[in-house]
Design goal:
Layout: H1 8-18, H2 49-57, E1 62-65, E2 74-79, H3 85-94, E3 100-104, H4 105-110, E4 132-134, H5 144-155, E5 164-175, H6 186-196, E6 203-207, H7 220-229, E7 233-236, H8 237-248
Helix pairs in contact: 3-5
Length: about 260
Amino acid sequence: MSTAVPHPLKHAQAATLRIPTPPPLPKSPARPQEVLDAPARTTFAFDPIEDALAAFARGEFLVVADDEGRENEGDLIIAGSEVSTEKMAWMIRHTSGYICISLPSERLKELEIPMMVHQNEDPHRTAYTVTVDYKYGTTTGISAHDRALTARALASSQVTPSAFSRPGHMVPLRARPGGVLTRRGHTESGVDLCTLSGLPPAGVLCELVNEDEQGTMMRRDACRAFADRWGLKMISVDMIAQFRKSLENGHVNGCS
């Protein structure tokens, strides 16, 4: 009795059918543009939280500073759903390049992404998980294109665990329940900013570094100058916490 040999074209067609729908594209692919005539500041000031949230909802980066007694660093944060190749390339150029994406524990459980280690010895207990790459439309996983696509896939509720390979080049972080009201970190800030802006809860973040030979970390005043240079809003983790408290108490902009 002869055995039928499957036609290779049918195999190819079946494989094509199994490729999932790509995650949605960002509202705008454009990266920040340098402001050549930005006026010099005489005193330090953060931007209004309402202006920052409006910019974030449009798909723009924010510079977010934490407490000077904690890390005393500024992170670039953008919604994962709004990351384009151009934005990711610009982010890599101006940061340490160790790009992370903060996600709620529920989303990490859905995607079957476990914690990186059983015993966390990080000084600030940053909750690193196993790294991932999106499988479809990517190559090595490390390029700006590949990391941007992986970030958007992680942010999309339509993408399932089988769409990712492990380990990879994007670093998911587990945000604590309660956000910045529970832990005053950039991880929780990323998720809270997305939630407050009506975007999928996935915040891409990385630490800003100075353009010096040592690659030192940017502190408060340097972060402010960087934000002004690139037309970005700058806020603090504490401002996010205070805004959330005002919302929960029913008092925003003096209204109840």
